[in-house]
Amino acid sequence: MPERIIHTLDGKRGGFLLIVGIGWLAIGLSYALGPTTQSRARGFSWLPQWLDANELGWLWVAAAIVAIVAALTSRRYPRRENWAFGAVTIPPVLWVVIFAWATIIGEHPTGWISSIAYGLFATIIWHCSSWPNPSRYHDVEGGSERT
Q: Which member of 14, 49, 95, 114 has the lowest number of beta carbons within 10 Å of its beta carbon?
């Protein structure tokens, strides 16, 4: 429904990207600026020290910015949505790999749960990326009327 309030959004896809972008911004900032919990540290412990959860959190922030900008300009530049859907898919897919590998090598025995959750995020985004926007026109007694 954000597309009804913000008129620069291109339908449902633009609204979806705006919502995901805001969510990704919150997730990214929680990783980048928040304290590293013991669970997070265990998931990322197998990576080089310069690729810890705080540093990789900025990837979520970058994807969020791409999604928000693309969403807010999507009515005028609808092809930006494709790039945004790609950008917001990358962080959760990377998190699937990070937590799954941490589970496999024994660093984080319950990391598989996080892998499933982040995999669900990525799958939902992938699924929604293929949806067309609803038509802006509908038939009204044989003619067309813009909605």
A: 49
